[in-house]
Specification:
380 residues; alpha/beta; nicotinate phosphoribosyltransferase; 6-stranded parallel β-sheet; 15 helices; elongated; binds ligand PCP
Length: 380
C-alpha cells in the first residue's frame, strides 16, 4: 500500500522540494541563523496533532512551545513556535504543518458537531471517507474534539478506547430479512452492546420501527440512515417514528440518525434525535490552514508582510475565553493565563500530550461557550 512510512517521515522525506533547495543554498553559503518560527492561522478552531509533532521533532536540537491539545485557538494567535538553527528543522515544516492542519480540522468539526448537538450524543462514523492508515489519527482528533464515541475498530488497539457501532444494511440484506437480522444480532452480539436496529432497508422507517417493536424483546434504539433519494422531509419521518414508538410504550427507545449529516441537520433535529452518527462532516473535515513563519532571526524581529514580528505568548481570560497576544519578553497582562507551554527543549520531549486530557479541555471550553451563549460565533 502506498504510505510514506514513519522512518521516512522522521527523516523529513515527506517535505516540499523547495526546502531541499533551501537547505542546499544555505549550506553552500554557510548560512544557518538561529530563528523563531511561529504557527498561526486566520481561523478559530480546536488544536490537535501535537502528540505526533512531538514524535516528529524529538531529537532535533530545537525548542518547541505549544498550546495544549484541545485548546481553542483564535485567528492570528500563535498555537506553537519552534526556536533553533533554521537548517535543523527547515524541511520538517511540511510534515509538522500536515500533522496539525489535518488533526485540528477534524477536531474542530467534531467540536462544532458536539456543541450543536447539546446534550445529545455524537459518534464519529466517517473514517471510511479517508485513507485507512489515518483511521486512528482521525478518531483521536474527533475524540479530542468531543465526540462521544468512534466507530473505527482500530481505536481499540491504537487509542485504548472502545469503538462503537450499530449494524450495516449488508447484515440485513445478507440475512434476507430485517427481523432475522435483528434477532440474530440480539442473540449473538455481546450483551453490553446497545441493541440499535437499522430500520430503513426495504420498507418505510416507520413500518420497520414498528416491526422491530413487535418482534424484539430488547430494543434500545432504532437507526435511520435514510438515503437522500427517500429523505424528503427527514424531520417528519423521525417525528412519525417517535410517535409510533411512543404509542406502543417504547418511549425509552432512542432514535439514531446517520447519512450525510450536516451541522444544520444536527441543529434542526437535536430536539428529536438521541444520537447523531456523523461521517463526512467530521472525518472529511477541511484542514485548518496553519502557516509557519519566521518572526525572529538572531534575536531581531522579522516578519513577512501580513505577519507580526517577534516571539509571542498568548494570554487567556478563562472566564470570558478572551485572549491577548504579547511579546514573549513583555510583562504578562493581569488576570490572564499563558497558553503556550514548553514541550521540547533541545530535542528532549519534556511532556507528552494525552488524548483524554485534551478532550477534557475541549469539553471544558465548550461549557464556557455554552455558559456565555457564544454559540453563533462557533456554529455559523
Ligand atoms: C453510511 C454508514 C456510515 C455513515 C452513513 C457515514 O450509511 O452508515 O456510518 O456517514 P456520512 O454519510 O455522513 O459520511 P451507508 O452508506 O448506507 O452504509 P451502511 O449500510 O453500512 O449503514
Amino acid at each position: 500500500m502506498l504510505i510514506v512510512n514513519e522512518e521516512d517521515i522522521k527523516k523529513g522525506i515527506a517535505t516540499d522540494k523547495y526546502f531541499i533547495w533551501t537547505e542546499k543554498v544555505l549550506k553552500e553559503k554557510g548560512v544557518n541563523p538561529w530563528v523563531v518560527a511561529e504557527i498561526t492561522t486566520s481561523k478559530w478552531g480546536v488544536f490537535a496533532g501535537l502528540g505526533d509533532v512531538l514524535q516528529l521533532v524529538e531529537g532535533l536540537p530545537v525548542n518547541l512551545y505549544s498550546m495544549p491539545e484541545g485548546s481553542l485557538f483564535f485567528p492570528n494567535e500563535p498555537v506553537m513556535f519552534i526556536e533553533g538553527r533554521y537548517l535543523d528543522f527547515a524541511r520538517f515544516e511540511t510534515p509538522l504543518l500536515g500533522l496539525i492542519c489535518h488533526a485540528s480540522g477534524v477536531a474542530t468539526q467534531a467540536f462544532r458537531a458536539k456543541l450543536a448537538a447539546g446534550s445529545k450524543k455524537v459518534l464519529s462514523f466517517g473514517t471510511r471517507r479517508q485513507h485507512p492508515a489515518l483511521s486512528a489519527t482521525i478518531e483521536r482528533a474527533a475524540y479530542i474534539g468531543g465526540v462521544d464515541g468512534v466507530s473505527n475498530y482500530s481505536a481499540e488497539k491504537y487509542l485504548g478506547i472502545q469503538s462503537v457501532g450499530t449494524m450495516p444494511h449488508a447484515l440485513i440484506i445478507s440475512m434476507g430479512s430485517q427481523i432475522e437480522a435483528w434477532k440474530s444480532f440480539d442473540e449473538i452480539v455481546d450483551a453490553d452492546v446497545p441493541r440499535t436496529y437499522l430500520v430503513d432497508t426495504y420498507y418505510d422507517e416507520k413500518t420497520e420501527a414498528i416491526l422491530a417493536c413487535e418482534n424484539l424483546e430488547r430494543i434500545d434504539a432504532v437507526r435511520l440512515d435514510t438515503p437522500s433519494s427517500r429523505r424528503g422531509n427527514f424531520r417528519k419521518i423521525i417525528e412519525e417514528v417517535r410517535w409510533e414508538l411512543d404509542i406502543r410504550g417504547k418511549n425509552n427507545v432512542g432514535i439514531v440518525v446517520s447519512g450525510g449529516l450536516s451541522l444544520d441537520d444536527i441543529i434542526s433535529l437535536r430536539d428529536l434525535v438521541d444520537v447523531f452518527g456523523v461521517g463526512t462532516m467530521i472525518a472529511g473535515a477541511s484542514p485548518i490552514d496553519f502557516a509557519m513563519d519566521i518572526v525572529e532571526r538572531e534575536g531581531s524581529f522579522v516578519a513577512k508582510r501580513g505577519k507580526r514580528g517577534g516571539k509571542k505568548q498568548v494570554y487567556r481570560d478563562w472566564e470570558k475565553l478572551e485572549d491577548e497576544v504579547r511579546l514573549f519578553s513583555d510583562e504578562p497582562p493581569e488576570g490572564k493565563e499563558p497558553l503556550l507551554e514548553k514541550y521540547v527543549e533541545n530535542g528532549k520531549v519534556l511532556k507528552s500530550s494525552g488524548m483524554e486530557e485534551a478532550r477534557e479541555l475541549a469539553l471544558r471550553q465548550m461549557e464556557i461557550i455554552r455558559k456565555n451563549s457564544r454559540f453563533d460565533e462557533f456554529l455559523k
